[in-house]
Amino acid sequence: MATFNYSRTVLFAELTGGALNIDVTGNGKPSGFAVAGTFSGATVKLQQLIGSTYVDLGPETTLTANGGGLFVTPIGSLRVAISGASAGFSVTVIIKPIEL
After folding, report:
1. CATH 3.50.50.60 fits 6-97, yes or no
2. Which of 37, 36, 38, 60 is nearest to 47 (CA)?
3. What are the residue ranges spanned by the domains of the chain?
């Protein structure tokens, strides 16, 4: 599982059927989620584990183009969910705490 303060470039060759889930451990502090690159039809979203189900954190962390959003959750089990990607997909995902 990746640690918080996370940055990774994800390429199409890593995906299975245009999809990939990347587990990330959160820290419960205000944080930022940013994604930039070539989406090739993909949706990239940040999700949190509630019980045994991953649910979206919200519209600010559900992206179909370059962008980002802020989030706060006490849940430590997070994942980046990528779906619907086609050839040419290549994005950099960054998740970092906001230092106030």
Report:
1. no
2. 60
3. 6-97
